[in-house]
Write a structure and sequence with these properties.
By secondary structure, this protein is an all-alpha fold. The chain is built from 14 helices and no strands. About 70% of the residues lie in helices and about 0% in strands. The longest helix has about 60 residues. The relative contact order is 0.12.
């Protein structure tokens, strides 16, 4: 009996630290998920606040279309659009319902559907209302439509240029639509907290969202306009926010958003892994990427057409690629997260 008793005792001693490790890992995951939820909530709340200011600015400009109110409107559009960029990586949860992500930003738009939809609405005899915007499809409903109204050169040289009455109606209705969606998304994410924290799969889902955002940034938002993908030709039209010249500002905002609301939870998980040094390396790589700004706060057209300026883009691309490798090929493997199939095919 003694050998059996001794064996049971040894097994018990082994199981105690294993159970302790499991409890520690569960606590670490829980803490990381709480950080993620809170960080994303703060991002959505910021989006809702900026979208509210944008809606007010649209009404004020159309009521008194002066240079000062126009500048306020353009800044309000940019502030709200950058707030969206900071949470753009979140591709799960409430933002999945009703194509909300596409309602905020219809991109890419290779067929120039935004311009075609705007032309149809502006030249139609029917009045523009919130109901019309809600029924007109995602190309009409988001920030790129407002960018078109504010910055499209052919439109601004036509009779439909702001502050034309019909164009102002479209401006106000789209801004109001964005405000409604932003507040809805903020409220729904807050209500989603219990389900998010209680569902084990959201750990991996959140990590994959960050991975996908980096793949999209590297391959589609940078490499494709630079001519490193596809037909090998540089093309500003492959970038987002090309009409306003804010393509690089949007990329910076996306990196900031990942750093602020995604990175803390990721590094918390890595700290308890077998490669805790990965966390500080990723943090430093985020800093390396962001050091390219504000020097890169230039229109993409200028950066693509001038070889000296293009070299700045190349440096950014290399650093983004290194960041993508650290997270997608090293951190994800260490945390046993399997990359989603064709994760860079969506936006």
């Amino acid at each position: 009996m003694r050998p059996l008793t001794k064996a049971v005792g040894i097994a018990a001693l082994i199981l105690v630290p294993i159970a302790g490790m499991a409890a520690s890992q569960t606590e670490t995951t829980s803490n990381a998920e709480q950080q993620w939820h809170q960080g994303i909530l703060a991002g959505y709340q910021s989006l809702a606040a900026e979208a509210g200011d944008l809606s007010v600015a649209a009404v004020d400009y159309c009521s008194a279309p002066e240079q000062a109110s126009r500048e306020t409107l353009e800044q309000a559009w940019l502030d709200a659009f950058l707030a969206w960029q900071r949470v753009r990586y979140v591709d799960f949860g409430p933002v999945e319902s009703d194509n909300l992500a596409w309602q905020f930003q219809f991109w890419p738009d290779p067929k120039n559907l935004i311009a075609r939809k705007a032309s149809y609405l502006l030249n139609s005899e029917d009045p523009i209302s919130g109901e019309v915007i809600a029924e007109s499809g995602v190309a009409v409903q988001g920030f790129p439509m407002l960018e078109y109204l504010l910055y499209d050169e052919p439109l601004n040289a036509s009779d439909n240029a702001l502050p034309a009455e019909k164009t102002c109606g479209l401006l106000r209705a789209v801004a109001s639509h964005i405000e409604t969606n932003s507040q809805q998304l903020s409220d729904q994410w807050q209500a989603f907290r219990e389900d998010y924290l209680a569902t084990e799969q959201y750990r991996d889902t959140t990590i994959r969202a960050g991975m996908a955002a980096l793949e999209i940034l590297e391959d589609r938002r940078l490499a494709q306009p630079m001519g490193l993908r596809g037909n090998g030709k540089r093309s500003v039209y492959a970038a987002d926010a090309w009409r306003s010249g804010r393509s690089l500002k949007t990329m910076e905002a996306t990196i900031h958003g990942l750093e602020q609301s995604f990175l803390p939870g990721l590094t918390r998980l890595l700290k308890e892994s077998e490669q805790p040094e990965l966390g500080p390396r990723i943090e430093n790589q985020f800093k390396d990427v962001l050091e390219h700004f504000p020097e890169l706060h230039r229109p993409m057209t200028e950066l693509l057409s001038n070889d000296d300026a293009f070299s700045l883009l190349q440096g950014l691309y290399v650093d983004v690629s290194q960041l993508t490798t650290l997270i997608n090929d090293q951190a994800a493997v260490e945390l046993s997260v399997i990359r989603g199939f064709n994760s860079s095919d969506g936006d």
